[in-house]
Amino acid sequence: LILVILILSFLPRGKLGRYPPWPGKIVNPPKDLKKPRGKKCFFVKFFGTEDHAWIKVEQLKPYHLHKEEMIKINKGKRFQQAVDAVEEFLRKTKGKDQASSHNSSEEKNRHNSSEERGKQSAGEEKRKASLSEGKLKKGTGEGKKRVSSVSSERGSKSPLKRAQDQSPRKRGRPPKDEKDLTIPESSTVKRVMTGTVAGFKWPPSVSEPVKDSDPHFHHFLLSQTEKPAVCYQAITKKLKVCEEETGSTSIQAADSTAVNGSITPTDKKIGFLGLGLMGSGIVSNLLKMGHTVTVWNRTAEKCDLFIQEGARLGRTPAEVVSTCDITFACVSDPKAAKDLVLGPSGVLQGIRPGKCYVDMSTVDADTVTELAQVIVSRGGRFLEAPVSGNQQLSNDGMLVILAAGDRGLYEDCSSCFQAMGKTSFFLGEVGNAAKMMLIVNMVQGSFMATIAEGLTLAQVTGQSQQTLLDILNQGQLASIFLDQKCQNILQGNFKPDFYLKYIQKDLRLAIALGDSVNHPTPMAAAANEVYKRAKALDQSDNDMSAVYRAYIH
């Protein structure tokens, strides 16, 4: 067994950051997952994330030698959970080894005892046979030979056992009944871990059942032209792994499961409009996965960092659309989405037959339907693809993409969606994704308001807020979202991960969606009022968790 620390440091410092080290173990890849070309690498499973990636040899370091150093560097809770998972794995492995060693010792003692009894029995029979043979055939060695043959057979292993012992076992091949495949520390691996790369050979892989959907990124289809309760069907697409390892699925941050596995980028030219909290993370992941990206932002200075990382600069939205095959956009609200398309030098002026436009903004269904109509009227192709997540998940390439519209365009965006997210859903006709996204954010926003209400109630009744969080984290509501937002409140840190003003906007649009079909949304309406009060207290540009301040002022 080899435990490793990943030293992923080839990216320059800056907003894109460096990869922090992350503990993992070398495992055997699925049978049909090809090894990348180029530099030698191992297939690694990351502790605490259940993600996998091909990792270059020079980026692997021994776990025990670097453990303390890495713990000092990484203070995050998720990293500590990963370290705890490593230690638990080691304890279980040690326990199994000790049990195995104990069992083998007992077996050996039983075997030796049995062998000794066999020898004594053979000796007794030898004496009897010798006496018998001596009486029948004096002076011949035949009796001795016959007894020797019997004794030899009884003291040796059975033919089946001999065949099992002599059967060759390939280096690195673990028993088939092991759930977590690991590579034993062979001499080859020892050379790698001590820094010698020359002569390194990739150990043979082990066949492993491969699930229908890719383990790193999932596509889902929902046909709403049939029964609305139809199950999501996974598209069977196997992730192609190339040389550069990622952060899952996601290379931005290994401290958040960012290991999508590398992908093969599309050869289409990609454009991206809007470099806000979500757009910045998306573009960084597109670039890291090898896509050719042209960027534009209303505030041009935000483009500089991405230009340094290899992106091209577009002077206007129209120019980006006209020079790219597929152009994505992610802006704040319906008005911004319309202005981007219909305004001066906007998207519509660059649309030609065959040009593709993907709107990732969270807007209402009417807005996205209007944009689709004007794009298609110019011969363009349209897909709506709002994303569920926050800044951290965007940076980590772990967004959830909800798509609707042109099915063929959805397929063409496959490598882009894999770069920016962990899962994508295709929901049918234009407007469905907008509706679903508003419902998702309505639930999230209402939940956040309830969390804030509970924490303030705990405070005014003399209960510990930290204890409340500890209790919630041990129950059915436990989640990363709950823990992070409560920590924000307890620490008074409301640095935006999802702007409060945007979750209030989504609640407002969700309530309007309910009104359009005469469906009551009293919980969302109540939460919306709390967010409106928080906005009145100048919390708009803080994180959504700042809704807490609406209860204490």
UniProtKB/TrEMBL annotation:
Domain PWWP: 8-66
PROSITE patterns, per the entry: PWWP
GO molecular function: DNA binding; NAD binding; NADP binding; nucleosome binding
Keyword Cell membrane applies: no
KW Signal (keyword) present: yes
Localization, UniProt: Chromosome; Nucleus
Chief location of this protein within or outside the cell: nucleus
Keywords: Chromosome, Nucleus, Signal
Chain residue ranges for the region called Disordered: 92-188
GO cellular component: chromatin; nucleus
Superkingdom in the source lineage: Eukaryota
Family membership noted in the UniProt record: Belongs to the HIBADH-related family. NP60 subfamily.
Entry protein name: Cytokine-like nuclear factor N-PAC
The organism of origin for this protein: Chauna torquata
Gene expressing this chain: Glyr1
